[in-house]
Every structure is written in structure tokens, then in C-alpha cells.
Amino acid sequence: MRLSRYFLPVMKESPADAQIVSHKLMLRAGLVRQTAAGIYAWLPLGLRVLQKIGQIVREEQDRSGAVELLMPTLQSADLWRQSGRYDAYGPEMLRITDRHEREMLYGPTNEEMVTAIFRDAARSYRDLPRTLYHIQWKFRDEVRPRFGVMRGREFLMKDAYSFDMDEAGARHSYNRMLVAYLNTFARMGLRAIPMQADTGPIGGDLSHEFIVLAPTGESDVFYHANWERPAELSAVDFENVAGLQAIVDGYTADYAATDEKRDEAREAEAGDALRQSRGVEVGHIFYFGTKYSDPMGLRVQGADGSEVMPHMGSYGIGVSRLMGAIIEASHDDKGIVWPEAVAPYKVGLINMRADDAACATAADDLYAKLQAAGVEVLYDDRDERGGAKFATMDLIGLPWQIVVGPKGLANGVVELKRRADGERIELSAADAVAKVAG
Q1: Between 96 and which of 104, 188, 233, 305 could a Cys-Cys bridge form, CB atoms 3.0 to 4.6 Å apart?
Q2: Phi, psi (5° rounding) for residue 118?
Q3: Is residue 342 part of a domain?
Q4: Residue 230: which of 282, 192, 272 has the closest Cα?
Q5: Both 330 and 353 in a single domain?
């Protein structure tokens, strides 16, 4: 994409109402624009990142055995009355009456709807276990939306729901999702710590929040220093019950808990390795047994002909919130530093002299070769001074920058810069293409 034809409204200064780094940089880098309190338009560059994050989430859900569907944003109030949550949920739920005086709501979550969908289709033990998920916009009417997409009112969420014949099966589904989440966040370059947490309005007796450490986080968290090691992908057979349990036990052996679930005995065991910080929640998983299947009449026939009430769990990832969390964890004083897996483009190509015919020809040729090699490239071909182009590229944080200038061309080289550490090397255009395409 040529920047001269793109829509990238960057800002030199941070807006006065932006309080945290991610909010400031998302506005300055032209990723989002606020349209109402806690509601954002996703501009082209931000949308590309959002789609990259969503795709990683989708791939790891599929790999864990979950099946994708898509449920609507508007839900009938009657479903929530069946579960008993309509009046209990609180003012965060946006309640709506349609033209026929039917009570509706803009869904903050989907336990009721997915239970009704599964109830109307499942008949016997042969239909279980199943885990269904979707990636859908949600709305919660926060009383004080703040921190940009970190605590907005409208947000993109992946929510999954598992159905099992008994508690043992449900706990295996829970373990599948816990490991899938660890792999999801590791692929994005994040160390997300699963911490014991309260279940809140979702219900149940088993819950973990996935927390990314950040000074601006909304939660006080306590954890063993071992969690500060780099995140790694887990090679896992999701069908191996014992093997999966061993992986989960290995992770949860190191203490980690939110303020509400602190364990003084385990903290004493950690000793000098105990750490305290603040963190950003990016995911939350729950096992809640028959909390929804019971009142909503979900029953299936067991293998022995008896009636069975399935056990359920729900599993959320804040897809849009993740963008803010990644920026909080990966930035410097010049701007965003995107992990390559979620970067909107892999390479920023800079023509230092748009008015120089030789530079323009060389940069155009390099742009074509990068595209032919399958490299996502944003080409700054604007008639701007070099300093402004460098500032823009550093701000938006693409992993690589390739600089084409008159001096380099005279020596047969271009400059390649790695955004993460600022390392610069000179090499031929062909070698630059090969390096970033590798």
C-alpha cells in the first residue's frame, strides 16, 4: 500500500484526555478515533491489527477443537429471564424495546443464547462434548469508560462455550481452553499469566483470569517470579486427558492470583520470589457446571438411557482490548513496537527523496519485489521531508524499515532497520528483500 493513497491520520501530540500509553499511541498512530464515550471507529491501520489478532485467536480455537459460529448482537430479554440473570446483571446491560414493544438487549455475553441454540439441537450423549465459539461485538454500558479500548463500552470479544456430559469432561474442556489461551497469547509476543479469580456474574466455582503485567493495569496481582520468563508455545495433544492435565498443573504450580483470590500460605512459600504488580485482563475462563443448563431446560439422553444435564464452561478473550495490552507491553519513547505476528504491515518502505527520479525508480522497483515476495509493505512515497517519514514509521511501529536514499543508491545499497532494537545495516536491495521475506 502506498502511503500517498492511504488513510493514516497521525497526530503529533497526544490528546489531553488520553491517560495511558496505549490510548495515546492508538490515537496518535491513527489506529482508532472515538465516536462517542467508550466507542471507537477502527481506522485502516488499526483494523488490520485487529484482524491479525482475531485470526490468531481463531486459529488456536480451531486447533483446540472448538467450532465457530456467529450469534447476533441483539438478544431477547426472555432468554435472560429463563436463566434468572435479566434483573440481576445490572445497569451495564443496555436494554432496548423494539417497535413491537418486545424487550431486547445488546448482548454483553452469550451464555443464554448459546445454551438455547444447543438445547434445541442436542439430543443424546453422541452430541457431546462440543465447544462452540464466535468472535462478535459486545456492549457493556460502563459508568466511566476510560483508557481507550482497554475499558470501552463497545468491544470485540471471542467467547466460547463448552458442553460436556459430566464434571470430569467439563474440566478437561476447561484445560483445553487454558492451554489454547496460553498458546494464543504467546503467539502475540505476550506473557499472559493465568491467575485464580472470582467468577463474578458469570457464576461457577472455577475461574482463571489471564493477566498481562502493565503499570497502568486495573488489577493488583501477585505472582511467583518464574512467571517473568519469556512465554513459550506448548506442544499439546488436546485429546490426551492426562497429558493436558500435566501441562496445566505445570503452569499453575507457580503461584499467581488477583487481589481477590490471594493465598497467604502460597505467598509465604514463594518467599523472596513473590512479586506484586498491576495487570491488564485479556482473557477469562469459567467452569460453572449446570448453572445455565438447569434453568434453561438443557437435557440430553445418556448412554444408559437416563436424562443428563450437561455441564458447561465459558471462555472469553478481549480481542480489541488485546491491541491496547500489546501496546502497553511493547512500546518505546518513539511509538509502538509491534510483534511481527500482529503488525499491520511487516515492512515500512521509505523513499527519502520523492523528487529524485533515481530514488523513485529504485523505491518503486523494491516495492514491487516486496509485494511479489508476499511481504506486506507500507510504502511512504509522499513528498515529505525524511525526518517526518522516519517519525511516522517509528510511531506506527512496523517491525522493519527499508530506506532508499541517493547516497545509498550511489553505493548500491539500501538501509534496513529493525524497529525493536534500532539496529541498522546496509545491504543490497535484493538481500533486503530476502531478509524480510525469510
Answers
A1: 104
A2: -70, -40
A3: no
A4: 192
A5: no
